[in-house]
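Tokenised fold entry reproduced for absentees:

. . .
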Amino acid sequence: MKATTVIRLLHLVIPWLTIFFLPKKSFNKFSTVSVFAGILVLVLSTLAIPFKWWTVEGGHFKKLLNDLTFILGPFFIGTLWIFHFTFGSFKKYLAVNAIMDFLFAYPLNYLYQRFNLYRLVKFKPIHIFLFFTSYAWIIYGYQEFFHRNHR
């Protein structure tokens, strides 16, 4: 089995193993915002094709596999956990998100490219950081709106 396949599987499985420790109430409360966040990342990933922001060896199918393992694994579950621990304290939420976005944009991005999961073309680590940081603002606003209108 290729290293990229193993990494993709681990991206999908490991975050879901942590879900047993998340209170059911938090899962229910924040799953909608996690789905919304996933949709935003899916739109970004779709735009990456015509704009050549990054490429994945193996064509569009492998790119879709890569994107889905990120979205359904660490991104979906990570969003749940971040909201579980920080919702209600916007400053804390922004700080945790900034740290996670930085880790993804720089050291993890470097490792993922070294393991040939993808290759950035017209996208730079700073773009990853800025997109994900802006998404953090958007999804927090979405959750605030959702929370206020569905009590």
Summary: Residues 24-51 form the longest helix (28 residues). The longest strand covers residues 54-55.
